[in-house]
Amino acid sequence: MNRYPVWKYVVIVIAMLVGTLYTLPNFFGESPAVQISSAKPAFKVDSNTLARVEAALKAAGIAADVLTLEGASIKARFGNTETQLKAKDAIQKALVPEPANPGYVVALNLLSRSPAWLSSLRAVPMYLGLDLRGGVHFMLQVDMQAALTKRAESLAGDIRTSLREKNVRHGGISRNGQSIEIRFRDSAALSAARALLQDQFADLQVVDVPDGTEFKLTATIKPEAARRVQDQSLKQNITTLHNRINELGVAEPVIQQQGLDRIVVQLPGVQDTAKAKDILGRTATLEVRLVDESGEARAAEAGAAAVPLGAERYLERNGQPVIVKKQVILTGENLTDAQPGFDSQTQEAVVNLTLDAKGSRIFRDVTRENVGKRMAILLFEKGRGEVVTAPVIRSEIGGGRVQISGRMTAMEATDTALLLRAGSLAAPMEIIEEMTIGPSLGAENIAKGFNSVTWGFCAVAVFMCVYYMLFGIISSVALAVNLLLLVAMLSMLQATLTLPGMAAMALVLGMAIDANVLINERVREELRGGASPQAAIHAGYDRAWATILDSNVTTLIAGLALLAFGSGPVRGFAVVHCLGIMTSMFSGVFFSRGLVNLWYGRQKKLKSVSIGTVWRPDAGTQITSN
Amino acid sequence: MEFFKIRRDIPFMRHALVLNLVSLVTFLAAVFFLFSRGLHLSVEFTGGTLMEVSYAQPADLNSIRSSVAKLGFSDVQVQNFGTARDVLIRMPVQKGVSSALQSDRVMVALKAADASASMRRTEFVGPQVGDELAVDGLKALAFVVIGIMLYLALRFEWKFAVAAIIANLHDVIIILGFFAFFQWEFSLPVLAAVLAVLGYSVNESVVIFDRIRENFRRYRKMNTVEIIDNAITSTISRTIITHGATQLMVLSMLFFGGATLHYFALALTIGILFGIYSSVFVAAAIAMWLGIKREDLIKGGPRKEGDPNDPNAGATV
Prior knowledge:
- The complex is a heterodimer.
- Chain A has 16 helices and 22 strands.
- Chain A is of the alpha+beta class.
- Chain A folds into 4 domains: about 5-25 and about 440-600, Multidrug efflux transporter AcrB transmembrane domain (Multidrug efflux transporter AcrB transmembrane fold); about 30-115, 2-Layer Sandwich (Alpha-Beta Plaits), CATH 3.30.70; about 145-225, Gyrase A, domain 2; about 285-430, 2-Layer Sandwich (Gyrase A, domain 2).
- The two termini of chain A are about 25 Å apart.
- Chain B is of the alpha+beta class.
- Chain B has 2 domains: about 10-40 and about 130-305, Multidrug efflux transporter AcrB transmembrane domain (Multidrug efflux transporter AcrB transmembrane fold, Up-down Bundle); about 50-125, Alpha-Beta Plaits (2-Layer Sandwich), CATH 3.30.70.3190.
- In chain B, about 65% of the residues lie in helices and about 10% in strands.
- In chain B, the strands form 2 sheets. A 4-stranded antiparallel beta sheet of chain B has the order 3-4-2-5. A two-stranded parallel sheet of chain B has the order 1-6.
- In chain B, a hairpin with a 1-residue loop joins strand 3 and strand 4 (about 85-90).
- In chain B, helix 1 (about 15-35) packs across helix 6 (about 160-180), helix 6 (about 160-180) runs antiparallel to helix 9 and helix 7 (about 190-220) packs antiparallel against helix 8.
- Chain B is elongated.
- Chains A and B meet through helix 9, strand 21, helix 13, helix 14 and helix 15 of A and helix 4, strand 5, helix 5, helix 7 and helix 8 of B.
- Strand 21 of chain A pairs antiparallel with strand 5 (about 120-125) of chain B.
């Protein structure tokens, strides 16, 4: 009656093997490493880069323990921090000749020392949260109202232009909050304008608002268009942040959307918060200027002469110098959108720019006067400019819709569009949550969490062994298996482990022992009632199971609530809590039964079980009689 | 080893009234302190800035206070954290100062006063986040209460669900009462601990209810009071041992977890102690007063008969 079929043991063995395999990487510790990733789309990290890094290290006389190309980044591991720093300098010098304008991010990092065969199985150590490894955490709130206001403002300008083009006379266009009011002198103009708006401005909802003797239209941004604007603003802000953080040289930055209007930025290992904040809060500007095509300028471009008066030298993204006139034609404020696309006739990849009304007027005039010449679109960040693109003007461009084309791949078009949009933040952001954890505190927190779990575990295990003898030992082994499986799950899922998460680990172990206490007490009770040892074990496990299930479900409900509504530290707690409850059901009941069956199950004439004192009251009591 | 050599069922229910009065008085005291003193909410809930600064030698709190005061920030709290060399500085949200700048400026001032000052951690939370966290916390509490009640009502009967929730919510209030009385800091991890305790001490009630149901099936001749007494008596050793084991873990956190986990472990300790009390003395008594009967559990609805998870389905004596 206390035998497991073979398949159950197979399940146990497999679970143990997988558990051990994925827990293993956590034991190898971490080594100092240098991680190289791309800072700009034009700079790809590939086997070529790897060769360059290898050469740079060789030249500096540094031997890396491991040097691999993993996905889009190169990781080089070193024996100690000293070589790591030397190696970083050497690689930095080789790959990033101009520190102010990096093509690659060369960052210090810590990498697992686990052997390659483990890494190839995707067995990696647990992902430690910021409170355990130190770093900076920001939560930024995007001001969506400002984004919508900005959009309404540019739409108002567009309407003005459209009405003028169609010769519809109006008595003034004004933006009132996020709605646009247009006044007319007669109803004919009003209906003409309404038709035009409905035809050309799909994003707007137009309502007649008769205002005394005046004819008035109120246009508001449609809810779905507003959602699109918000969505785009958020994405654009995230892209901008990405570009800026690349400069900080952070190995594994986390930049993600949270909710509808928030962005979380986590920079592990960064200590200089002031610099991080400065970079995050920086504004970039976009400028359109004409390329200086005089003879002197061409010579300067080739490096043969000085830059002529009234012009400046900037670099294109591929490093090609361009001499640009100082006079600014347009700024990013006039650019309302930039999207990648394809030319309908040539099937060439292009970038479509949309300018606001003022921008399109200026643009039309400038292009008419400069056909055949080049114009440059520059991006300025922290006073440092870069030419994003410098196309040739083919014809006069009116209407505010500009197409940039010319030997671009679809990928490059996407990147350029992104960069143009990302140049500036779509909407202002505000830091609403900030956390900095020093590196020493992180290491201390790990030690604290580790000690809590270890000593708690030891205390519980010793007590169980003394109180329940062999069954106690089995319970303790089951508890150890629970810990093993929990760590394996956390490593596999790469869930973020935080200090509250480690507390949850300790707590869940304390709770998991409940299952074994229930079982052991039940077995004792059956023995006390006079059941044979085999029957007692059987009944003990069977009867305790329903109770264990019920009590775990209630605990799980609490865990899920924390997971659903919790944020930050609470979520870290909840993940470990929920996982731990699941693994405890397996280890506490299924696994421990397996051990008991293995030990006692074969003995047909089992006389006694080692479960500590089974105390029997002298006379029949209420507990045993019925 | 056996700690519990109990010869006869302990007549818990005979003293139910007294035990519940004790509970009620504690509960009312907790509610009173919650309203009169209020919770000392952490920066996470109120918004503001928190800085942990470490010094090479025991820190001079007064000089720190004065250097921060010179910056013109109001309502600044400075206290030791864990050791004499670690200092915790709390500042409410300051008007006119950009949130991000605040901690930087304080750090510069502290460094100027004592070069050994090193920043260990800063935390800034905007007021809008704090409000949300409070709302989310209440939502989570509601979710737990409703979820557990539904589950218990399905698995047992509504009377048990009501009894368990009353007993365990009163634990939660008592924990909060302790935090209000001693003005311990109520932070997010403490909130997590409180909700975990709620789930955990419902366990306790579930174990006893399970036994009550089983006893109703096994002992036809006993009346409800005897059945409950027997159920509590036969599970008391498990109750104490399980909680003891969990408490060992929590004590380990209290000793080794440092200042960060201190209040978390404290909340759990109170929760575990009162969890035992309320499950043993309060939940069953409320279920009794609500009038649980053998028929509620044994004949039940057809749903219970078909419950695949019940190993005792169809068991008769």
